[in-house]
Specification:
70% helix, mainly alpha, 3 helices
Length: 118
Amino acid sequence: MAPPDIPPRNAEPQMVPAGYRQGIITAITVLLGFSLAFWRFWGFESPGHWSARSLFAALSLVCAVVLQIIALFRALRIEDDAVAEYRQTVRWFIASAVALLVGLAIAMLDAALGAPAD
């Protein structure tokens, strides 16, 4: 007898319910838009000097954007209708969100520690 999480070989693959793919595509593009806008402002337009912390934050933000683009690419594929593929795409997206949060936290720390005291 096969374990419960492995479907029989002759069974049809499970498909994602209608609306799930559109939802994750929307979520990815919103986060990607925010990431690029924040990156533009923080990396190119805000005053200040680069430090080791800001370099680490920038690398984390670049990593987040790359992961978001990979997740978007996966979400736009026809194969992402299958539940297993969709779950993997969600993992890529969650990894990108974690990388983004790390980058934002380090950028905030860098701004707080680099700001002159009043």
